[in-house]
Design goal:
The complex is a heterodimer of chains A (about 250) and B (about 160). Chain A is about 30% helix and about 25% strand. Chain A has about 250 residues and is α/β, with parallel strands linked by helices. Chain A is globular. Chain B has a 3-stranded antiparallel beta sheet. A 3-stranded antiparallel beta sheet of chain B has the order 4-6-5. Chain B starts with 13 loop residues before the first helix and ends with a helix. Classes of the chains: A alpha/beta (about 250), B alpha+beta (about 160).
């Protein structure tokens, strides 16, 4: 039967290190369907970032399979795009040029039009010809987001997207990402986020997958049954935070 | 000694001010500043800069140690990005040094970064850190769509939206 979504089946990742083998991830299996917002949490070094890099086709599993809509992910695809913790934007290129980088398969005219649309959508209209060095961290991350969503991916993967930002800017961007996703007016259909903040995971996700210490494997897959926008003072919110914290510590 | 007539705005970014307004809103529109600093693990001086900028923009008021949203602050929370920009633009163009900056840009419809700084200094505005000032100016004026900026020419140009502010 055709499967419409992301499916990880028995994914393992091993690295050879000085004659030994480090097992980073062991038998990780889960599926994500349309309109799910999923957070991956776990202790440092549990392989969460490795896992999402494999989902994006930037690395390959040692064994097991990562399937997207029934096809194995073997290389980066514009249908699964990533927002990086460090923004990953080129300082010598303008905002417009940085966003257009994700659209190199389009004609120049199309590239310009699409990039302009997404620059506007993330609130950076007027910054097209600015350089990243002139922007604050929050604005730089907006550029990273515009680039990631400009190719209208089905899955948006976020690798600790707010951890390099101050607390208030991070709060603002979290809310904007959630509003954007919930509006259902645009792709992506799925958010897959890695975060070290359990609070953030519960605030933004419909599901939280908890990984163990190395070798990382799934210890819990928890549905967050709270309406959006979430109220961090709700006792149920803290119930989830406590439950997940106790699984990690 | 020259008496400075105006000071540049506080050292606070757009994202910080929007984030502050959202957090105060989440606390039903009013929260103690000391509690907020602890909750956000923020230095009180740093938080004060953000609150000060939000105050200048008429988004919050501070009363007896608590920060609370004004009607503008509340409306900022309920709108889209474009609505937020509209509220910020409406309030920014009324305050210094934006009023003076706008007057400088409006003369020819555009102005070089150095002309803006020179123009402000003629009005005795203190700009100690030009790079920081430039970043903040671009962040606020750009986000509120008052002007657009060309980084290769270092030129600010009026945006159509700002005429309707």
């Amino acid at each position: 039967m055709a499967s419409y979504g992301l499916d990880l089946k028995d994914v393992c990742k091993r690295y050879p290190v000085e004659g030994n083998v480090i097992v980073a991830l062991e038998d990780v299996s889960f599926s994500i369907r349309k309109r799910e917002s999923v957070a991956l949490v776990g202790p440092s070094g549990c392989g969460k970032t490795t896992l999402i890099r494999m989902v994006c086709g930037l690395e390959q599993p040692t064994s097991g399979k990562i399937m997207f809509e029934g096809k194995e992910v073997r290389e980066p695809t514009s249908r699964i795009m990533m927002v990086f913790q460090s923004f990953a934007i080129f300082p010598w290129k303008t905002v417009q040029e940085n966003v257009e980088l994700a659209l190199m398969d389009k004609s120049e005219k199309e590239r310009k039009a699409i990039a302009t649309k997404y620059i506007d959508l993330v609130g950076l209209d007027g910054f097209e010809n600015s350089y990243p060095r002139e922007l604050s961290g929050g604005m730089k991350q907006r550029v990273g987001m515009a680039r990631a969503i400009s190719s209208e991916p089905d899955i948006l993967v976020l690798d600790e997207p707010f951890s390099a930002l101050d607390a208030l800017t991070a709060n603002n961007l979290r809310n904007e990402v959630i509003r954007f996703y919930l509006s259902k007016k645009h792709k992506p259909d799925v958010l897959l986020m890695v975060t070290h903040s359990i609070d953030e995971a519960v605030y933004m996700s419909s599901r939280v997958i908890v990984l163990s210490r190395r070798p990382g494997h799934i210890v819990a897959d928890i549905k967050i049954d709270l309406p959006f926008p979430r109220d961090k003072r709700d006792p149920k919110f803290y119930g989830y935070v406590d439950q997940i914290t106790s699984l990690i510590t | 000694m020259v008496k400075h007539k105006m000071l540049p705005f506080p050292d606070a970014n757009v994202g910080e001010v929007l984030g502050l307004v959202e957090i105060v809103y989440a606390y039903k529109g009013k929260v103690r500043v000391s509690f907020l600093a602890e909750e956000l693990r923020m230095d009180l001086d740093e938080l004060n800069d953000v609150i000060e900028m939000a105050k200048i923009l008429s988004l919050v008021r501070v009363k007896e140690g608590s920060v609370e949203l004004t009607i503008y602050g509340e409306s900022l929370n309920l709108g889209t990005i474009d609505d937020k920009k509209r509220v910020l633009r409406k309030n920014l163009v009324k305050i210094e040094p934006f009023k003076s900056i706008l007057a400088i840009i409006k003369k020819d419809g555009h102005a070089h970064q150095e002309d803006i700084i020179r123009g402000l200094r003629e009005k005795k505005v203190v700009i100690e850190d030009e790079a920081r000032f430039h970043k903040l100016l671009l962040a606020w004026g750009g986000y509120a769509e008052i002007f657009e900026y060309d980084g290769s020419k270092r030129v600010f140009t009026m945006m159509a939206a700002s005429h309707q502010a």
